[in-house]
Design a protein that fits this description.
- This protein has five helices and 13 strands.
- The chain has helices at about 10-20, 25, 90-95, 170-180, 185-190; strands at about 5, 35, 40-50, 50-60, 75-80, 95-100, 105-110, 115-120, 130-140, 145-155, 165, 170, 200-205.
- The strands form two sheets. Strands 3, 4, 5, 6, 9, 10, 11 and 12 form an eight-stranded mixed β-sheet that branches. A five-stranded antiparallel β-sheet has the order 2-1-7-8-13, with no helix packed on it.
- A hairpin with a 6-residue loop joins strand 7 and strand 8.
- It is globular, with a radius of gyration of 17 Å.
Length: about 250
């Protein structure tokens, strides 16, 4: 699964450029985050009239007819294998696909009492785009709120050393294929929901302060200098330019 992620670049213009949106559209929706947790506010990018649009949204998909957001914690991830059939996600899969901007995500090893986080990110530090779904609901009769989920898939060999799932990371040349509202072929869409190549990501052990959602500071993604039992090699993986097309 993907239960925490980051988007920490200080340069708003570089984020906007990477996402293919206008800086002014990003506006107040963006601030550096080092420990984004379920139900936190963030933003997604969708397609509207053949243009990419930024939508402020809260993590944890809530169906449009819900009376409260109790289901949000269950809606943070959607499995690629069942995203088109599970009642919570199937309508959004058909009509409301999006990308979720990030530049890294965390996974853990160890026991519940001694959880060691690892930060997975691109070797060049550039942003990446998770495949997502979004939905609108009304927390109040006169108020609409967007919520989102991150689609996950089986891991590649490198990430699988830490966890049995990983977020679907879309290469730039496939983003529009995913968010294009006119695409209705389930097989075509699900063909995009595959693991990233092994060399696309690297990982490093980071501070256990990540374990508390109260912590959200730049030091969280600093590499630990002490040896960590069972860790992947520091900065494991190699840089890769583009994904291979399937």
């Amino acid at each position: 699964m993907c239960g925490r992620f980051t988007l920490a670049a200080a340069d708003v213009a570089s984020i906007a450029h990477a996402l293919g949106v206008q800086v002014e559209d990003l506006g107040a929706a963006y601030q550096p985050r080092y420990n984004l947790a379920p139900t936190d506010p963030h933003f997604v990018v969708r397609n509207k009239l053949e243009e990419r649009k930024v939508v402020p949204a809260r993590w944890g998909l809530v169906k449009y007819d819900s009376k409260d957001r109790k289901q949000a914690a269950r809606g943070i991830n959607a499995r690629a294998e069942s995203v088109d059939t599970r009642p919570l996600f199937r309508e959004a899969f058909k009509k409301r696909r999006c990308i979720v901007p990030a530049d890294g995500y965390y996974e853990w090893t160890g026991t519940k009492e001694n959880r060691q986080p690892f930060w997975f990110h691109r070797p060049n530090g550039q942003p990446m785009t998770f495949a997502g779904l979004y939905e609108w609901w009304q927390p109040q009769p006169d108020q609409w709120e967007a919520t989102f989920t991150i689609v996950t898939c089986p891991p590649n060999a490198m990430t699988g050393q830490i966890h049995d799932r990983m977020p679907v990371i879309l290469p730039e040349e496939r983003v529009d294929d995913w968010i294009f509202a006119g695409e209705e072929n389930v097989d075509t869409l699900k063909s995009l929901l595959v693991p990233a190549p092994e060399a696309y990501l690297v990982s490093r052990p980071v501070s256990q302060r990540v374990n508390s959602v109260k912590n959200d500071t730049p030091d969280l993604i600093n590499e630990l200098t002490d040896q960590v039992s069972g860790e992947l090699p520091a900065e494991s993986g190699q840089q890769l330019g583009l994904f291979e097309r399937s």
